[in-house]
Amino acid sequence: MIDPIQGGIGLALLRAGIYHALVKALSYPGPVLLESLRENCIRLTSWQGEWPEGMYEAMVALKECAGEADVSVLAEDYVRLFGPAARVPLTETSWGDMGRMLGKAAQLADISAFYHAFNARPLVGRETVPEDHLVMELEFISILCLKEAHALNQGLERELQITCDAQKKFLQDHLATWTGDWMEQLVDQAPAPFYQCVGEALQTLIRAEIARLGVEPVPIHGRCRDRELGADSFTCPMAPRG
Questions:
Q1: In this predicted model, what pLDDT tens digit does every residue of 169-178 receive, in sequence order?
Q2: Is residue 129 assigned to a domain?
Q3: Which of 121, 111, 132, 80 has its CA nearest to residue 239?
């Protein structure tokens, strides 16, 4: 029989790994990154314990897609979908109605407050990535899952409660509010099979997390568009510069 504490630690580490794999999958593609993603998926799918519903199959599919993907095709599709004229923006504040646009500063401040509270800082190379970029939000939850595992391992009840509460609130107020519509828009753009797979894995994870945490996020629908610019002013922070 698996010890409940050890099982909880394993699941927290598994979730951290899944979130981090999706961070890689949604970063600008390159051969090294894709191979690293594939290796991550191999390690994750070796986990013999309990899995969030549907996630094992999603990670197996992601591993296969990463191994079969053509980097040049992915790079072109990444720019088409997520680049300067993003058809499916990767930033939270690009989604919603005009009221959401007017409240953009407050939304970014709230996200930044979460990061500051847990001393979460951008990794090297991501210093200019917006706070509300999907890779930043996924990386933050990954960090919270690692902190959850540490608190469980050390028997730190207060720290565990704080970390779990933060996961709930961040999913409720941010990550889980806009990724559903994001996925629908992604499908509408007929993405490369790899990005279709990434979107399905993200959707499966968010659904499992909503059920696990018992949160009820209010879905955000549609795109925010600046009437003066005529479209989003999002730029692709993950593409190489030069």
A1: 999 999 999 9
A2: yes
A3: 80
In a domain, 13, yes or no: yes
Residue pair 201/58 in contact (Cβ under 8 Å)? The answer is yes
Percent of the chain residues past pLDDT 70, beyond the cut:
88
Question: DSSP class of residue 189?
Answer: T
HEC string of 52-72 equals CCCHHHHHHHHHHHHHHCCHH
Show the domain range for 107.
Answer: 4-213
Instruction: Please name the amino acid found at residue 27.
Output: S
Residue 223 counted as domain residue = no
Per the listing, tokens 């005529």 go with 230
Q: What is the pLDDT of residue 5?
A: 72
Cβ neighbours of residue 87 closer than 8 Å, sequence gap 6 or more? 80, 81, 185, 189
CATH number for the domain harbouring residue 141 = 1.10.3480.10
Q: Where are the alpha helices (DSSP H) in the chain?
A: 4-25, 31-44, 55-68, 71-82, 98-102, 104-117, 134-154, 157-170, 176-188, 193-213
Question: Six-digit token pair at 39?
Answer: 């290796």
235 domain residue, yes or no: no
- Using alpha carbons, list the distances in angstroms from residue 126 to 34, 65, 85: 18, 25, 20
Please tell me the total count of domains within the chain.
Answer: 1
Please tell me the distance from the alpha carbon of residue 140 to that of residue 109, in angstroms, as a whole number. 15
